[in-house]
Design goal:
- The complex is a heterodimer.
- By secondary structure, chain A is of the alpha+beta class.
- Chain A contains four helices and nine strands, in the order αβαβαβββαββββ.
- Chain A has one domain.
- In chain A, the strands form three sheets. Chain A has a four-stranded antiparallel beta sheet.
- In chain A, β3 and β4 form a beta hairpin.
- The N terminus of chain A is likely disordered.
- Chain B is 39% helix and 20% strand.
- Chain B has eight helices and ten strands.
- In chain B, strands 3, 4, 7, 8 and 9 form a five-stranded antiparallel beta sheet that branches. A four-stranded antiparallel beta sheet of chain B has the order 1-2-6-5, with no helix packed on it.
- In chain B, α2 runs antiparallel to α3, α4 packs antiparallel against α5 and α5 crosses α6.
- Chain B is elongated and about 100 Å long.
- The chains are: A alpha+beta, B alpha+beta.
- At the A-B interface, α1, β1, α2 and β6 of A face α8 and β10 of B.
- Chain A: This is Lipoprotein.
- Chain A: It comes from Myxococcus llanfairpwllgwyngyllgogerychwyrndrobwllllantysiliogogogochensis.
- Chain B: InterPro entries: TPR-like_helical_dom_sf, TPR_rpt.
- Chain B: Keywords: Membrane, TPR repeat, Transmembrane, Transmembrane helix.
């Protein structure tokens, strides 16, 4: 083995170690969101959106009112749920009976692999138009298909506002 | 005269001389201390006492003023210095200075009483001053101090403050604790030697070590009197202020950048290497990975949240 080849071995090992692992289909981190009883009493659906340039957003501000009044539609990345539905915001009907009995509800959102996102979950009350009850905004430093660090999510508390949080697909 | 009568006669002579001697010559076996010779000692206090006993009141006043200006004077020494200054001023007929000295003495020791041996004139003045102090409001203490900027860590933190009307016996302190800890540590504000109302507190370096991750320290300022009543402050134990100690990496980088040219910094070349490897690895990873990552979200109701 020549000396030059020997010198390049560490780099080769480093590059090999950086490849994707066999992760299957699901990402490795979860977002565990708690909801206050006041929100749970009225919530009908949850709307999930992901914003680009998360680090330049203020989650405190974003949680004050409907997301669609604060950002442009183009700033939202296209998401996909487990059934293959795509959209810039995904809605999930809440299984209130399960949650009020101490259970939990699992949602799955496929996000484009990338960095520096802000993930916003908005609680929506049924009505025409629908009402904003509150939201949980969380910074996602990176989303990839390998292992990810767990994220501590902001709790969803009642911040009722007279705005319609609906975001078109 | 018989020779054996001699000791008897000498003894009688001493007895007669002793009885006939004027009262001024009679001295007790253990003489009571002079009025000035009470309380704690320091070189100035000792010298001033001697000067007062010798009747050198102007010199005593200068000595006492020098003693008051000296650094690191204890509360007990201050009390004694003011007591002697009041006494000296009274001997000199300066009632204003005597009043000022005794007011300060009373601020520190509200229950202080003059010894019974004190001259009636002194006792009378002292009683009047005590009555005056009782009937008027105490001047408020003011504390002027800026919040502590985020420090680099691993170095002492020096905090300067301006404190006005700080009474004798009162203490100004800086309380601090690492965020999440139960108890506060404290350091005293010490008078600056140069300026009268400038004070300085120093948080030791070992209480703000450099760590790999940044961390927060909660703190507040407080001035309390001898009975631990709060006279002034900024923040309190329930609503403290915060500063963040910078992490190790940034501190090390700052030191390196000060000490050597940028292109010789090992961090630069580590960073260049990391970017090169990371970039290549990123390209490899992204090109071979899926387009999307799945984010599972679990929603629960928190029964403790109303």
């Amino acid at each position: 083995m020549s000396l030059r080849l020997l010198k390049s071995l560490p780099l080769a090992f480093a590059l090999c170690a950086c490849g994707p692992t066999d992760s299957g289909t699901a990402g490795r981190f979860g977002l565990d969101v708690t909801m206050s009883r006041a929100v749970a009493a009225e919530v009908h659906a949850l709307q999930v959106s992901v914003l680009e340039d998360g680090s330049r957003r203020s989650c405190t501000e974003l949680q004050r009112t409907c997301l669609n009044t604060q950002v442009k539609r183009e700033e939202l990345v296209v998401l996909e749920d487990s059934r293959g539905n795509e959209g810039r915001a995904l809605r999930f009907t809440v299984d209130l009976a399960a949650m009020q009995n101490g259970g939990s509800q699992a949602l799955e959102v496929d996000v484009p692999v990338g960095r520096d996102y802000a993930l916003v979950i908005e609680a929506i009350a049924v009505g025409a138009p629908s009402r904003f009850l509150g939201s949980s905004c969380n910074y996602l430093k990176v989303v990839n298909s390998g292992d990810n660090a767990p994220v501590v999510a902001a709790p969803l508390v009642l911040t009722e506002q007279s705005c319609d949080p609906s975001i078109g697909p | 005269m018989h020779r054996h009568d001699l000791p008897l006669r000498v003894g009688a002579l001493f007895l007669v001389v002793g009885l006939l001697a004027p009262p001024g010559l009679a001295r007790p076996l253990f003489p009571a201390p002079a009025l000035s010779q009470l309380g704690p000692a320091s070189p100035e206090i000792t010298r001033a006492r001697e000067q007062i006993d010798d009747g050198e009141f102007e010199e005593a006043r200068r000595t006492l003023q020098a003693g008051l200006d000296a650094p690191d004077v204890t509360d007990d020494q201050l009390v004694e210095l003011y007591r002697l200054l009041g006494l000296t001023a009274l001997y000199l007929g300066d009632e204003n200075q005597a009043r000022e000295a005794y007011e300060k003495l009373l601020q520190a020791r509200p229950d202080y009483e003059l010894p019974r041996t004190a001259p009636p004139k002194l006792r009378s003045l002292y009683a009047r001053i005590k009555e005056d102090i009782r009937s008027r409001r105490v001047r408020p203490v003011t504390l002027d101090v800026d919040p502590i900027p985020d420090p680099p860590g691993g170095e002492p933190i020096v905090v300067e403050a301006t404190i006005q009307e700080l009474a004798l016996g009162a203490r100004a302190r800086l309380f601090y604790r690492r965020a999440g800890d139960q108890a506060y540590n404290s350091v005293d504000f010490v008078k600056d030697r140069g300026e009268k109302e400038r004070f300085r507190a120093v948080v030791p370096a070992y209480d703000v070590p450099v760590e790999p991750e940044p961390y927060e320290v909660e703190y507040y300022f407080e001035v309390v009197d001898a009975a631990q009543r709060r006279l002034a402050g900024r923040g309190d134990s329930f609503q403290p202020m915060l500063f963040q100690v910078a992490p190790q990496r940034s501190t090390a980088a700052a030191e390196v950048s000060e000490g050597r040219p940028w292109y010789k910094s090992p961090w630069l070349w580590v960073a260049v290497g990391a970017v090169a490897i990371g970039g290549t690895a990123g390209v490899v990873a992204l090109s071979s990975s899926e387009d999307r990552g799945r984010v599972p979200i679990t929603i629960r109701v928190d029964p403790s949240q109303p």
